[in-house]
Structure formats: C-alpha cells, structure tokens
C-alpha cells in the first residue's frame, strides 16, 4: 500500500527556500572525511621479557601433545594472553598422527579489537618435537626435545607483542594464533601433510566472525637462535611477494639487514603453506635457514641442543621490533 502525504503550499515554499539556501555555493561540497585514529608511537620490544617467555615454556619440558607438560603450558599460555587483555579462544581438536596415535591438541587464539572487520594474523607453533631425529644427531634420538628455538622463540615474540598491544592499544584487528601439533610429522616421509596438523585444522575452521577477513598473516618459526638468518622463503614469495618485499625492506631500514637477508630461501612446507592453500589467506614465513648445514637449518634443529643456550636476545629483539613496527605502522597508515 502506498501512502501519499500532502503538504500545504506555504510549507512547500518554505522548504524549497531552505533547500535553496543550504545548497548555495559551488555545489561540490562533500562531507568531511572520517576522523583518523590518533598516531601511536611504535613501542620498544623488550627482549629480556621475550627471553623469559622462552624460558617459561622450556621449564614445562617438551610440549608434546598428550603429555602433562603440554597441558600445563597450554593453561599458562591461555592465562597469560588473558592477563594481556586479549579475547582468548582455545580451539580444541583431535588429529591422528602418522603413528596412528590420536593427538588431543589445541590451537590458541588471542584476539585484539575482536570486532574489527579487517584483520592481521601473527602466528607460531607452540608444540615441540617428540623425537631428536635430526640426521646429524646421535644422542637420545627417541626422546622429545625442549624446542627453545623451534617453537618456543616464535611464541615468546608473540607474547611480548601481546603485552605491548595491551600497554599501547591500537585500532586494527590483530589475531595471534599459536598452532598446535606442527612438529609431530614423519621425518623423511613422502607426505608432508603429517606435519602442521594444527594449521590444517585452523585453516578449515576459521574463528572469524561474519564479515571478518584476514588481510594477511606472518608466521614466525625458529626466530631466536644466535646468528639467525631469514632469507625470502619460496612459498612466501609465491603467495605474497609484495608482503615479503615490504617486511624485508622495513627490517633492513630498521638496521636488521643482517637477519633479514636479501637471499632466496628454499621451499618449506610450514604452517603458512596450509594457511595459503586451504584458508586462502596470504601468509609469509620468517624462518631461520642455514644453507651450509646438512639439514638446511641450524645444527640445533631437532636435537637436544635446542635449549636455552641457543637463544639470543638480540635475535628475539630484531624479529619482535619488526613485528611491532608492522602493526603500529598499519594503525598509523604508514606501512
């Protein structure tokens, strides 16, 4: 039903006069742009704080799924993110390992500005390797490793980033995702999908609310060792070359070119591979490579030498300061 409203002629004339006066001028006036968020200075990444977060993880022992150390570390991570003001999600799942064992695992998600539609994902894996099976290792091969660097360092950097996000809030949406069951894969096996079980699950079960979308992601893996070098990893360059260029140039301009080196790295089937191919979110991998070694990684990789002695606070600071610069420059509109 259409309802017609009739106005007196005098009122119509007054309205016309008002509209004419309001519309006087060039006719090109536009509404003022929406206010931009106030700029926030990039905070200092506290390297000693990050170091203590590595040590705290290592203090639980190897964080292998289905172990008591894994459960204890999980609870500590959840409570720490809550203490740092994040909205925290424990994404529990079960996955069958290549051994046939069913792993009870949890992806840990810490959200800042959870209502923001456009989001950035920072990720690492928090479990550690159940075997010391590096081909250059001969000691205690069947024992789980501490994983101070391989797992612990990336988590520690992101914990310190979370602490800074609470202390110096910004307006952009940030999701910190700690993948579980990344390192329970078959060494030398033909199927790389036995690794990165947590990121495969997350990529098929995204936690975003309706209308939310991740613009890009950055994965941190083995980012705490002395003398670390991060070349441009192959899959990162395939899926997000522009992001790699921006991050590496920023790091070099900040004085960290000895870590973020202008070299092409090999292809690593890491967590980012599944985020790119399943979730279709462009994610790059910052990962330490050592091309002169037999494995292509540091000599501590998948050995019992991956303990606190390998961790260097200067490496933690380099990676962490770059992560903070990215987030705060995104907020300020300068990245």
From TrEMBL:
GO MF annotation terms: glutaminyl-peptide cyclotransferase activity; zinc ion binding
InterPro entries in UniProt: Peptidase_M28 (IPR007484), QC/QCL (IPR040234)
Keywords, alphabetical: Acyltransferase, Signal, Transferase
Signal peptide location: 1-26
Pfam entry (one): Peptidase_M28
Domain of life assignment: Bacteria
Boundaries of every Peptidase M28 domain copy: 107-326
UniProt-recorded name of the protein: M28 family peptidase
Protein source organism: Phaeodactylibacter luteus
